[in-house]
Write a structure and sequence with these properties.
Pfam families: EAL, GGDEF, sCache_2. The protein contains 21 helices and 29 strands. It is an alpha+beta fold. The chain has three domains: about 250 residues, Beta-Lactamase (2-Layer Sandwich), CATH 3.30.450; about 120 residues, Reverse transcriptase/Diguanylate cyclase domain (Alpha-Beta Plaits, 2-Layer Sandwich); about 240 residues, TIM Barrel. The protein has an eight-stranded mixed barrel, surrounded by four helices. A six-stranded antiparallel sheet has the order 1-2-6-5-4-3. A six-stranded antiparallel sheet has the order 9-8-7-12-11-10, with helices on both faces. The termini are far apart.
Length: about 725
């Protein structure tokens, strides 16, 4: 009986032991699930971070690529200038000489002899000769032009070779390498071939020259090349996931790459990272944590069983000890995290978060921006850039209290007193130099309690815009900001009420027998008529331009459609044409209007047309619907006559800056040449800014077809035009 009782007395112990083991198993399982979820979150975060690094590295390489060509072309032009001047000085030039290998061209040519020149990158002159392009330098002397040039292909090849060496250096033993593909066509044939691999890292050189086809999948059947080809064709960057050979492991692995396009060479630049690079590190940490977890569980169970007799006493002590240890580690970790949260990791200065929390204790604040610091990073590298930032931080800490780093190239100094402009200019005018790199600062400040940082940032914007190096926030700056915001709100109200009014200015035919009109946008605000000069920039800044443009275009179409006015020109900017919604809106108006032959679209020649093919396609479509095309402000910039002819205009409107100066012989000759050019290609000419009879008669004698200006009439609303 006693033995049975003793056995029964063991039942609670056994049950307690069983429940304890079950608890440990459940506890371990819960921890495992939690650990898996944390791993998943960590992987996503790390992958997103790595993607951002890929973007930045590709952008940095593209900037380096462009800089390499700029340096090469600039050096070549400088050498050509020295060489040509030396040859002229020694009287060694007679006629035009082209080397047998077409590497060099030098000579003297008559001014009246025509050559095919083009302007490259808006600053280099290229000569097209015998199917070769030469980077040339010209010297104009009397009746002749002296010329010296180097074959552009030779310079390009030298730069490509340098870029290859540069890539070999940075890609050595680096699985996250940069590679280049050459896109030979954006319209592949049936085989889908669109280019080849131009450059691969040292361990994958055998893949250089490999044909690229949108129909060629990776080893898992994914047509990843088709995806990035479509994006690059639209000049868009993209991420692509595919399987590729890892040069470090020599195995095919999952890879994430970022693709971008380098124009005008049509190189596809990519940088990728293998998933194994991230997962391997995470897996290692996970295994260590898992092992630590297992050890803790097994040791706990063993200890639990071993010390069952003194469970309550020992366990209580152990729990207290573990609790104290956890709290201590937690406090230390919290301290580290708090420091990391409130301090910049590079300079160890308090960061923007810390500044925002401490702003209220300051009466004055100075904001310092390092001028052109991104250029310093590009030229000297991030390592040197970081050294410079540390040096600046140390210098500020020596001379000032309460120094913060609030941005990549921005510092803040807090003051327990009100500051004045002298405090700002003292910093802005400091002579700061790190080794061979001289630095300048743009400095702003504020004494506006409650909004120190915000107002200092506003003052910094004003300083950069006005090219001043030290600006203290004033009520004038605040008032200007308020006026800008008020004006934008008024513009929104104008848009809401559609108080956008077309004014019309007459365009007279040379014999005064025919009259056309140009539609000009005006708005009604505060019971006044406002011209575009007062609001056009704000429309673009507030992203209201497209809506305003659509309304004015619609109103002019309605006036023509309803027989209120005939033969009207409507101004279209490049912004209108590239915006898909506006384009479709215009096509819809044209399709509904039965008087398209009475409408002309004026396209500004002075605007930078970045996507010429989009503009050309738009013009072809509207001309097919009966709309006429005029090139506005012709002659205002570096007019590309070939491009103009490709647009097939019906009219050329000569820029007013030329017409105003027609009394100057040079401007007179330019106008005469434009008229001759237009007549040769059956294009009507329109002279703007005709302000008096004398200008009118001169232009009429030159053979101008149409005239526009205050000499004939000012812009008026439709009601006055009809009267």
């Amino acid at each position: 009986m006693i033995k049975d009782v003793k056995k029964l007395s063991l039942i609670p112990f056994i049950l307690f032991l069983i429940f304890s083991i079950i608890f440990f198993i459940i506890f371990y399982s819960v921890l495992q699930d939690y650990l898996k979820e944390e791993i998943k979150v960590t992987q996503n975060k790390i992958l997103n971070i790595e993607k951002n690094y890929l973007k930045k590295d590709v952008k940095k390489f593209k900037d380096t690529f462009k800089l390499a060509f700029d340096i090469a072309y600039t050096d070549a032009q400088s050498n050509l200038e020295i060489f040509l001047k030396t040859m002229i000085e020694k009287n060694l030039i007679n006629g035009l000489f082209v080397s047998k290998d077409n590497y060099l061209i030098i000579g003297k040519i008559p001014k009246n002899k025509k050559f095919n020149y083009e302007i490259y990158e808006n600053k280099y002159i290229l000569l097209n000769l015998n199917s070769h392009k030469y980077l040339v330098f010209l010297i104009d002397k009397r009746d002749s032009v002296y010329i010296a040039g180097i074959n552009k292909k030779y310079i390009d090849n030298l730069v490509f070779e340098k870029i290859r060496h540069y890539l070999d250096k940075i890609n050595k033993n680096n699985p996250s390498y940069i590679a280049l593909g050459k896109i030979t066509t954006f319209n592949p044939g049936k085989d889908g071939v669109f280019g080849y691999l131009y450059y691969m890292p040292p361990k994958l050189k055998e893949k250089e020259g490999m044909i690229l086809s949108i129909y060629k999948p990776d080893i898992k059947g994914r047509f990843f090349r088709e995806k990035y080809f479509k994006s690059l064709k639209e000049n868009k960057d993209c991420f692509v996931v595919y399987t590729f050979k890892n040069p470090k492991t020599n195995r095919y692995e999952e890879k994430i790459s970022y693709y971008s396009l380098i124009k005008p060479f049509n190189f596809s630049v990519l940088k990728g990272i293998y998933a194994s690079q991230i997962i391997k590190k995470i897996d290692k940490e996970v295994k260590e944590k898992q092992q630590d977890l297992k050890n803790i569980v097994f040791i706990g169970m063993f200890t639990y069983l071993l010390l069952m007799g003194v469970y309550f006493f020992v366990m209580n002590k152990l729990v207290q000890k573990i609790k104290l240890k956890i709290f201590k580690e937690y406090e230390e970790l919290l301290k580290k995290l708090r420091h990391k949260h409130y301090h910049d990791s590079l300079t160890n200065l308090p960061n923007r978060i810390k500044l925002i929390e401490e702003l209220n204790k300051y009466q004055g604040l100075i904001l310092i921006d390092i001028d052109d610091f991104s250029d310093i990073n590009d030229v000297y590298g991030f390592f040197t850039g970081n050294k410079i930032l540390k040096s600046i931080a140390n210098d500020f800490k020596k001379n000032y209290e309460n120094v913060y780093r609030v941005g990549s190239d921005e510092f803040v100094i807090g003051f327990n007193r009100k500051i004045d402009k002298t405090d700002l200019c003292e910093i802005a005018n400091r002579d700061f130099q790190y080794k061979m790199v001289k630095l300048t600062f743009t400095v702003s400040g504020s004494n506006q309690k409650g909004s120190l940082l915000k107002t200092a940032e506003s003052a910094l914007k004003v300083a950069k815009k006005s090219k001043e190096n030290c600006v203290l926030f004033t009520k004038d700056i605040e008032e200007a900001q308020k006026n800008r915001i008020r004006m934008i709100q008024k513009l929104r109200k104008v848009l809401e009420n559609r108080k956008i009014i077309p004014f019309y200015q007459c365009i007279e035919e040379k014999d005064r027998k025919d009259r056309k009109y140009e539609a000009l946008i005006r708005i009604e605000m505060d019971n006044k008529i406002i011209t575009p000069f007062m609001f056009m920039d704000l429309l673009k800044e507030a992203r209201l331009y497209n809506k305003f443009s659509q309304i004015i275009i619609e109103k002019v179409f309605d006036d023509v459609k309803n027989n209120k006015i005939k033969n009207v020109s409507i101004n279209l900017s490049f912004i209108d044409i590239i915006d898909e919604d506006t384009r479709n809106f215009i096509f819809d108006l044209i399709d509904k209007c039965k008087k398209n032959n009475e409408i002309t679209f004026e396209i500004l020649e002075s605007e930078s047309i970045e996507n010429f093919e989009v503009v050309k396609s738009f013009i072809e479509k509207v001309k097919n619907r009966g709309i006429k095309i005029a090139i506005d402000d012709f002659g205002s910039g570096y007019s590309n006559y070939i491009r103009v002819l490709e647009l097939q205009p019906d009219f050329i409107k000569i820029d007013g800056s030329l017409i105003k100066n027609i009394h100057d012989k040079k401007y007179f000759e330019i106008i005469r040449l434009i008229v001759e050019f237009a007549k040769k290609f059956n294009i009507y000419t329109v002279a703007e800014f005709v302000e008096n009879e004398e200008i009118y008669n001169k232009l009429k004698n030159l053979g101008i077809d149409y005239f526009q200006g205050f000499y004939f009439c000012k812009p008026e609303p439709l009601e006055k035009i009809k009267k």
